[in-house]
Every structure is written in structure tokens, then in C-alpha cells.
Amino acid sequence: DTQEMQALLINKFGFNQDNITIVTGKDATRDNIKNSLYKTLTQEADYNSRVLVFFAGHGVQQETKSGGQIGYLLPFDGDPESPYTTAYAMTELKQLTQISEAKHIVFLSDACYGGLAAEGTRGGLDVSTPGYLDKITRDNARHIITAGGAGEEVAEKFEWGSSAFMKSLKS
After folding, report:
1. How far is it, in rounded angstroms, from Cα 42 to Cα 38?
2. How many CB atoms lie under 10 A from the CB of residue 156?
3. Average confidence (pLDDT) per 10 residues, the chain, 171 residues
4. What sign has the CA pseudo-torsion 167, 54, 146, 115?
């Protein structure tokens, strides 16, 4: 899916290949993913930057004592039985965007339970909000688009050659 996303970005949307960083396979460890995201979002991106982050892989959730869930993106070296110590907490995405200067950041998460990444965030403004156009063009924007909601596993079929999420993105 990552290679398909790269081709889609370059061929359909005109992205410069030099501006695309890919971390896959054995290189997609928790530390490498975290370092790559940090470098891109805090050291390379400036106020005028628009950044797209795509994660295709496994997601896991961990129950909390209060009955909620914490979502994790499972890297190559992650252990689904010990996500807190081996995976990338979806809440870290929000933290990272808070320290990035990038004007726009879009996260595409093709992982089970990806909807947990958006929990605790607010939705968009209503178009009737006073100063709506000024606000949406002035403020930084953070978007999370996920393959499924909190508590949902994602659909994938062999005959599609990818997940339903990637299939939808390609169409």
C-alpha cells in the first residue's frame, strides 16, 4: 500500500518524489517512525508547509481502567501484547502536530482502530461561524482520515490487492 500511495501522490497529485519519505518493512520500527515524523514535522516543515502522513499497517487498542481505549499504530518491531512499550500511541500524533509549525497536516491511517487517533479532537467549523473564511485560511489545520472508527477493524480482500481504504483512495 505504501508504494501505491507513493505512485498516487506522484502520478495523480504531482508530488515531487524528493519530498516523499518512506519507512517500510524492517526499517519501520517504532523509533524510526517516531524519528522520521519528528524530523519531518518539526525540523523540515515550516509555516507554509503542507504535510501528508500515511500509515498502512496494524493498529491495536488497549482498554483503560475507565472503560475507554487507547489506540496504537503497530510498527515492525511492535508487540500487540505490549503496545504501551512497543507501539506508537495515536495520541502522540496530536502532540506532534502541536509542536509543528506546518500550516496543514493530514494523517491517513489505514489501520484497525484508527478512529482512536481522532478521539478528543474537535470537528470543523460551521460555515455560519462569524469570520469563517478568515479563520480557516489563517489557522493551522490538522486532519485525520482513518480506515475505520474506534473499535473497528479495517476491511481487506485479496482480490482487491489492498485494503478497502487504499482502494477508495485510488478511485
Report:
1. 6
2. 16
3. 87 90 94 94 92 88 86 92 93 88 89 65 64 70 74 59 70 72
4. positive
Interatomic CA distance for residues 5 and 167, integer angstroms: 10
Q: HSE on the CB side for 37, CA within 13 Å?
A: 24
Q: What is the pTM of this model?
A: 0.79
- The two beta strands, 69-74 and 88-89, are antiparallel
The residues near 62 (Cβ < 8 Å, ≥ 6 apart) are 69, 70, 72, 83, 84
CA atoms within 13 A on the CB side of 83: 18
Tell me if 106 sits within 8 A of 55, measured CB to CB: no
- As a whole number of angstroms, the distance between CA 76 and CA 32 comes to 10
